[in-house]
Write a structure and sequence with these properties.
The chain is α/β, with parallel strands linked by helices. Helix content is 33%, strand content 20%. It has two domains: 56 residues, DNA polymerase, domain 1 (Orthogonal Bundle); 261 residues, Alpha-Beta Barrel (TIM Barrel), CATH 3.20.20. The chain binds S-adenosyl-L-homocysteine and iron/sulfur cluster (SF4). Iron/sulfur cluster (SF4) binds next to helix 4.
Length: 342
Amino acid sequence: MNTTGSPPKALSGFLPEELFSLNTLDKPFRAKQIFKWIADGSRDFPSMTNLPLPLRNALSANYRVFSTTVAQTLRDPDGTVKLQIQLDDNSAVETVLLTDMKGRKTACVSCQVGCPMGCAFCQTGHIGYSRNLDVSEIVEQFYHLEDAVGKLDNIVFMGMGEPLLNLEAIQRTVEILTHPDGRALSRRRITVSTSGLCEGIYRLADQGPNVRLAVSLTTADPVLRERLMPVTRSNSLSELRKAIAYYIEKTGNRVTLEAAIMQDVNTKVEHARQLADFARDLHVHINLIPWNPVPGLPFSTPSTAEVHRFAHMLEREGLTVTLRMRRGDKIGGACGQLGRKS
Ligand code: SAH
Ligand code: SF4
């Protein structure tokens, strides 16, 4: 604790120029060195051996490298790893490593403690909302995962929370992780997933960063979507479609429309037609996510046959469809399961 009673600042959430504005540093290249050390895996100041000893001591006395710790690591036999990350205020968030068939590693990170959007089919939506995460709390999820499993290829903001309600922190996190003096991750390897907040989509399109966008459409049936996703009340499907078209036009990127699909809920012929109407003339592809079980919720996972039937209906409508494999469900780490006690 410092004299103000609050814990020392964590430097993981600072860009080099911001580090330099700290009083402790007298030369810009020192800020770059610290930034690089953190990106390369240094988690305390004594290990930053190219800094003079008095500077290392001064930094240790006034700052921390990280503000969060890993409280628990869970490993699924399918290769998925889930970290429970402890925050300063004793709340916790979850971060997941997903490995695909080609061995590419993706960090699925959280941006809020809980989520205020209240989607009917999602565990996180049912645990309620506490607060936004700050930049260090988001960046550190990525670094903690790299400490656990080695270098990661991609990052997706698809953990707990609605990224576009915490856009400023997401923008700064992307700046840190893509910075050439640090981790230098490519923007193409970063995806932000939203439940469909139009204003946030416009802001992301206008302000950047130019990352990949995924929109959790779930269904293009307006009545059903409003029942499943309350966000629809203030962000109608037609407004959402316009915002997606704007994002595509402005960034040149293809957008992913995600659809968590539930048995006999959003898999009928008319749902395929409505989805096709929504997607017509948009540069999008559809990612189907068979619903992952959440105890107590009134949905069921569709059979493989139902999933394939729905996928074929969409393909016959001329859409490009991919199927997300279930990963990490034994440790409560699959899409929509975060926040569950494992
Ligand atoms: N809040 C953001 C990102 C996190 S949710 C969003 O909603 O886009 C990531 C994805 O998981 C979303 O597409 C969401 O619709 C989906 N999802 C939520 N609960 C699910 C569940 N139980 N099974 C499968 N997918 C789920
Ligand atoms: Fe929040 Fe996304 Fe879950 Fe909806 S699906 S409650 S937006 S985390």
